[in-house]
Amino acid sequence: MTTPTTPLPAPLxxxxxxxxxxxYITTTIPYVNARPHLGFALELVQAxxxxxxxxxxxxxxxxxxxxDDNSLKNVLAAEAEGVPVQDLVDRNAEAFAALRAPLALSxxxxxxxxxxxxxxxxxxxxxxxxxxxxDLYRKHYEGLYCVGCEQxxxxxxxxxGRCAEHGTxxxxxAEENWFFRLSRYAxxxxxxxxxxxxxxxxxxxxxxxxxxxxxxxxxxxxSRSGTRxxxxxxxxxxxxxxVVYVWWDALGNYVTSLxxxxxxxAYEQWWSGGGSRTHLVGKGVVRFHAVxxxxxxxxxxxxxxTDVLVHDYLTVDGxxxxxxxxxxxxxxxxxxxxxTDTVRWWLLRDVPRVGDADFTRERLVARANADFAGxxxxxxxxxxxxxxxFREGRVPERSAEVIEGTERLTAVCREVSGxxxxxxxxxxxxxxxxxxxxxxxxxxxxxxxxxPWALAKAERGGxxxxxxxxxxxLAALIGACxxxxxxxxxxxxESAARVAAQCAEDDGRLPAARPLFARVxxxxx
Length: 525
Hints:
Layout: E1 22-26, H1 38-56, E2 60-67, H2 72-81, H3 85-97, E3 109-112, H4 117-132, E4 136-146, E5 151-153, E6 171-180, H5 186-195, E7 199-201, H6 203-214, E8 220-221, E9 223-225, E10 235-236, E11 239-244, H7 246-251, H8 253-256, H9 266-270, E12 276-282, H10 286-300, E13 307-311, E14 314-316, E15 319-320, H11 331-338, H12 340-349, E16 357-358, H13 361-391, H14 407-425, H15 429-450, H16 452-460, H17 464-488, H18 493-502
Parallel strand pairs: 1-2, 1-12, 2-3, 7-13, 12-13, 14-16
Antiparallel strand pairs: 4-5, 4-6, 6-8, 9-11, 10-11, 14-15
Helix pairs in contact: 2-3, 4-10, 5-6, 6-10, 11-12, 12-13, 13-17, 14-15, 14-17, 15-17, 16-17, 17-18
């Protein structure tokens, strides 16, 4: 096989620590029939936050993303353009890999299923393991197939004869394919998910999966005729007239990227050697990741993921963002216009844990101006300015005792890390960012309540106690800003670095205060 056209990024995997555990975090791998959109950027940023957070806590992390090149959707898109399939997938896959810079992504690995030499050998090995378990068999089949979903549907699963996901009428397909005995694993899957050993979050998605299992699992087709696949994809081992079903192919990336099927020690280290194995997925592909994929692993005798974390959709004017519908927002263009952290922050601060979120440029701008220019930037500027004005830029030492008026701020600084940990463990990014933002709100209350300028005036009048209290207030405010920089790192790394630099002492003094965040808008400010 040929080597990838996109160079792999330099590894960012955290070195092992004495107490840290391993965390393997993955996104889905999207079809590359078109350029990436903001809906997938949501998943990328969520995964990146989890990876950065775990690294920050001292865990050893591997973060994987990539592209699903072997889809019939990609073939049809290439035919529509009149270009070779490999040319189309190479071009669009490059655009997905290139999101690393505009979204400040820290993935350690990026796999392409048509190009990566690790992938085919791992898919073949997984197929043979399931065949050896007696779970693969051939039969004639006729059904309704949605190319958009790359999935067969029964008439009962359609809405007025159309796919609920894409609004299109499925094609009627009749051919002989290989099938996987999914029905054999219903009881084990139900037990794994209901017991939490395979954690599916949030609960509404876990309940959907359990309802799907209770409704009866049917064996599903895991190959396509080479003719219908246009010869594109991985041939079925020992049956070259058939091509491995794209979902079987794609799901395998979570282990093939670790060298499953080779002697690469990464597989043992990240998949079968313990630690967490976390998949981030959209709600439209839950059945594949929480039912099909675990069943395939059970059949092959391999460990299962520990977590399947499910996000809902982004919409534009109430319509789901998708490449096929033409409702798209280019995340790279958005970041170029408004800034990387502006995009990341909106995705994390405004998108709920459950329920779709409607994107508008106005909401993006309003959030950035309120939180960065008006909130965080204003707080840091006020704190640093007061240190220069009242203490010649030198941050007073923290008192062993909590100074009157700083009690609540001190408590929030002490507690924020735990609140963020809990929220991210619950896959709730909005709650996590709210926990961090409480620091900004409490610091503002501290300034308004203690009135440092009044304490400085009293100190100049000879009130020594006022001066000591002023020292404590200024130390608490700068300490809160430094805590903010630390806690914001996984969410908005560039902004966190700005805050940290503004609050770092050089030769015993803070740098001169300067505006950290300009107001953003459609060509304004």
